[in-house]
Amino acid sequence: MDRLAIAETWLDRALEDLSLPRVPARAPSEPVVAGGPTGQQLLDAFLDGVRSRTIDLVARELRAEGRGYYTIASAGHEHLATIGALTRPDDPAFLHYRDGALVMARARRAGNDTVERDVVASLCAARDEPASGGRHKVWGSRELMIVPQTSTIASQLPKAVGCAVAIGRARRVGHALPVAEDAIVVTSFGDASANHATALTAVNAARWGQRVGNPVPILFVCEDNGLGISVPTPRDWIAETYGNLPGLTYLHAAGELDEVWSTVDAAVQRCRLARRPVFLHLEVVRLGGHAGSDAEAAYREPSELAADEVRDPLPAAARRLVELGVAAPEELTELVAATRRRIRELADRVAARAEPLSDAAAVTAPLAPFTPDAVRVAAAHAAPLEVRERGFPRGLPERTDAPQHRTLAGQLNAALRDLLLARDEVVVFGEDVGRKGGGYGVTAGLQRSFGTGRVFDALLDESSILGLAQGLGLMGQLPIPEIQYLAYLHNALDQLRGEACSTSFFSDGRFRTPMVVRIAGLAYQKGFGGHFHNDNAIGALRDIPGLAIAVPSRPADGPRLLRAAVGMAAADGRVVAFLEPIALYHERDLHVEGDGGWLEDYPLLDGSWLPGEIGVYGDEGPGTDVLLVTYGNGLRMSLRAARRLEGEGIRVRVLDLRWLAPLPREAIHAHAADVGRVLVVDECRATGGGIADAVVASLAEERVVSHVASVRSVDTYVPLGPAADTVLLSEDDIVAAARYLVAGNLGGSGEGRW
């Protein structure tokens, strides 16, 4: 028999065996101890635990019957009901997967009487369940302000800290919150997850925020059951690791239900009143294994398993309720039995009519919403003329006199200023973006104009930067965080892959984390860098479902694409990676030194250049010999190569993709079919580093053209100094490959050598 099913009998036996001296009945509203919980509060918390435990058992039963799909239980963690009872339903919550009792208590406090039905529906992956719409079993509710996530490795903690920072700074920056001003953030995780980098960086970020003077009202709840699946946590490890950190209040909760309640109450009040991070170390026990498929007997001794019975919180709570005169044994027996009957009958009805998502379109509907008309309006949104005139002390950037011709960096700076003027919800932040103005001057002067509430420096940790962006987005702001170099993003990639880009998916669109992540990247910096500053691999970004990727090339591209990205975030809640080619930031010339061919005027704020809208250069008439498909630095090299080829009588058309996700396939196919020969010019690494593989595969699978080739950089890290030229795609490579293709050779691919 499943150990969780056996545990059900422990409570029954405990109730049958209660032979304590009869205690005078206590009025439900009477505190059990001075200043402590009332009898009714403890009874409600106990029954919240019973409800959660019964759903755990139902999950195993439904799985055995082939009607359910999820069996990770909350059994043994029922003291979490105290947190659900003592926090408010509008306190944002980012929860551990064993928090059933917390959810039951929060729903009860909010007057939500459908929570049991909703949880059972999620076990069955029913399309009408309101947490994720049948996409996964998650704790989530817009009504209860529980943001859904899988929470397997504490990866939700950085965005929980970001949410707390957003709440803490709202009054100072004049931002209206979707929650109360004195709300706190609750985030929970296991003792094993407490060792993960995301947990450590989140706690560090909360302490750092507190240290520099920002309110950070977050309650970290470590649910310590002593096990990470089969790996035991060393005794006192959590207390030793987190118990004496400056800037973090540590409280330890253990013992009887009323004792845990009092400690939790103190933790919540400390967090809410002091507006500072609190670490609540809650002792729990894991009952029934990690999940239904986990055979504990394979790695735990019989004596350890037997000890769990003694530590089961539900029998202990029942005994305590009788000891305190809150309820008689027979009353508890009937309440428990009635709860079980009701939930099992409900589960049978819900499972009988549960319908899963039935097609790919339904599954992916909330993943990457795109409403072009709304995005176009949002992208074109600008501040009134008089506001813009005051906000640009040197004159409006669209003036056409020569001093206004700018580089890409200059135009991006003007675009950010325009966005800060147009949208009060926009905030710009990252490493060195404030006082210094960014490593390449892109944010120069913005903090001086808009203050530290709108433009500020973050601590040097990419996970924290992206976590802060998610929290700000959840609280109604529109963050534009900067990642200083593309290579720095990889140590924090899961904050995009597992968290930000999954928020809408796992909440069926009920929560969104809009943001535009500015990333300085790609290669071709001269005399500087090595692979950390010349990172030419974007495959990890292209692999993230729902992430849009924009790459500006020319100076006028920057403002248009940035405004389109902000439009997507504002209108559809999208996460957009805005990849800025470092080598083009301050480029001025195109063909020869001093020609000014890479300087452009500030574009009209017309909401153009949305995904699917590409740039077309060169020969657009019939008889074009070859089509070059490219982006970023590849555009400048391709335009230079095209001039050389045209001198040889080869007519060239160049496409600037602008958007690498979603790829503008329709436009690529149309131009490819028109020209007949296609050369994909991809500056990134040959193996999965860029977009050549996707473009070539798309053209081949759709049988658009038969003459297609690609040139790419060598599949290696970029070395320092002149050695970089030996591995990076060059203008000569493009010319040679185009000649090869036009001469009648069939397609192929090469790592920058022909």
Strand order, largest beta sheet:
9-8-10-11-13-12-17
What is the CATH homology-level superfamily of the largest domain? Thiamin diphosphate (ThDP)-binding fold, Pyr/PP domains
Give the distance, in angstroms, between the N- and C-terminal Cα atoms. Answer: 67 Å
CATH architecture of the largest domain: 3-Layer(aba) Sandwich
Give the CATH level 1 class of the largest domain: Alpha Beta
- What share of residues is helical? 40-55%
Q: How does the major sheet shape up? A: 7 strands, mixed
Tell me the domain tally: 3
What coarse outline follows from CA principal-axis ratios? elongated
Number of strands: 20
Uncertain stretches of 5 or more adjacent residues: none
Number of helical elements: 27
DSSP strand (E) fraction?
A: 5-15%
Radius of gyration: 30 Å
What would the CATH topology of the largest domain be?
A: Rossmann fold
Structural class: alpha/beta
Mean pLDDT over the full residue set: 93
